[in-house]
Amino acid sequence: MLFLFAMYPIHSFDTVPSTNSLAKKLAKNGAPHGTAVIAANQTEGRGRLGKNWHSVVNKGLYCSIIVRPRLAVQDFPKITLAAGLGVAEAIDRIAGGFSQLKWPNDIFLDGKKCGGILTESSALNEPEIQRFAVIGIGLNLSSSLEDFPEDLRRKVTSIFLQTGTCPDASHVFLTLRDEVLQQLELFYSDGFRSILAAWKQRDFLLGKHMECVGSDGKIITGVSLGPDEEGQLHVKDGDGQIHTVLSGDISLAGKE
Asked: Could you tell me which of 57, 68, 63 has the C-alpha nearest to residue 115?
């Protein structure tokens, strides 16, 4: 089913393997900026580093938004931080709380994970007119703890668990999409500095002891100093050495 809202196409499905996969196909076929794919269920949802994303049928928001950023190639990795800020702003409006962001792509409420973002892009060596990014967002809306595997229950939450109310998925999506696109517009017009400043105010890891498994497989243990102007995370270890983290799996030391 396809319908239009505020000039942005929305493709809505009951079940898809992955909203990101479908959105990438649409983008390759010329789908415009702002086009979205929404599903009530994903059978092959995934997160960063190849992890599976646990999708609870009809109790979460699973969507992907196609963007065609007017950004230099080196700025594409920052899209995830800008999108995360937009998602956090939307959740605050809906849930009436203050959400936090765990670098680079997780959404936290009350110290527990409520959602995540997976941003994928076209080949960046393509002509600018053909470049795109797909922002995949998974958000726990009306899930109860019993909906999650037992080993995740102490780590996750939902808007329902935080507020006692079950938000309407369509309303959440429209609020979220508009906030994400607005943050990207600010990125285009004002640069990354204002995005980063607002992001840092929500930094879940800042000042906390953490462990990071880097892309080289080595474990870095230290205190998070937050991301820099390139969106890269810095960690200060016990010897005072500062490490730049480009990617990797991050957890609080000894707690996750």
From this structure: 63
